[in-house]
Amino acid sequence: MTKRILIAGAGPVGLTAALEFNRRGHAVRIIDKGTGPSDESRALAINPRTLDILAPSGATERLLAAGRKLRAANLSFSPGHRVRFDLTALPHRFNFMLGLPQSRTERILIDLLAERGLAVEWKTPLETIERIDAPVAATIAGEGLSDGWDLLVGADGAHSTVRRNLGIGFPGHQLEREWGLADVRVGMPYPFDELLVMSREGRLLAMIPVEDDIVRFISDQRDVLGLIPDEFVQKDILWQSAFAINERRAEPLSKGDVFLIGDAAHIHSPAGGRGMNLGIEDAGWLAWLFDQGETGRYQALRLPVIDGVLDLTSRITAFASPRSPLVRIARNTLVPLLARFPPARNFMLKRVAGLESPDPPWL
Prior knowledge:
There is one protein chain. The protein is α+β, with helices and mostly antiparallel strands. The chain has nine helices and 19 strands. It has helices at residues 12-23, 48-54, 59-66, 102-115, 161-166, 275-292, 298-320, 325-339, 342-352; strands at 4-8, 27-31, 45-46, 68-70, 72-78, 81-86, 97-99, 126-131, 136-140, 144-149, 151-154, 172-187, 194-200, 203-211, 214-219, 233-249, 254-255, 258-260, 266-267. The mean pLDDT is 91.
């Protein structure tokens, strides 16, 4: 039986929710307060679990055609020593991370929705929620009351209007240190299908290939450009920004027939590349549970996974960018030692790939 689904937020998580509900035969409306899709690259890494979830809608095939397969991650915390994690060792059909700017991911998902007769309604913010139990009712800017929804999905980001309307808190904290990032056109001194994380002058520097000769540099200091090694010949700075890391999680994840997914439900460090991917998992699970008539299980199924990712990314961040010289020495010693043991390598590979969480039962 066709149900009516209202989705607030048209980032990659909200767009995934629209695809997942639509392909199950439901009538979807997706609105967003923005003027159009983002032009910024923001999230870059699409993990194997996300590729699994997006495959039935046809999105994965297009993402693979547009993106760059990243086949290894290299860690170098002391001069002359590098530990290589081979992603192709993953026992999975997608044994790589896919590098693709978020802006291009969004446009692929928007095009797929358009082919199904669905268009994002931009400049259309949700203002208030008038009834949380189906039929859900909400007021939408420019049109007033919108009623008769079987489900309202809040995919409207860290400053979620949906979450605020539900009266759900967003407890957590902001890390003291400000981080910097830059997308730079460079000459590459190493394979363009591998990630590199290294220590520079006591600071963390991560390098992620974006496309062609463009690399994203991320550091735990604002001036990321000052840390770029000389062997990377800087040609053009395409985008530069600074950000603070917040670690927060909403609870509960729903009230009545209104549910939170993605950044509206949880935010954390970008370490491990799980942010957008975790939100896409939320979208897939919610659509499946709704189809099964079991949305009451959403929180019980998702909270352990979300909490696990928040804990993992927090630990990675603290370990990768320690303030204490003693902790840095311990890190530089332990990483090469642990990498020699297959169980330790597999542990980290599975978590980066998003494969430590339960397998989606609909795949």
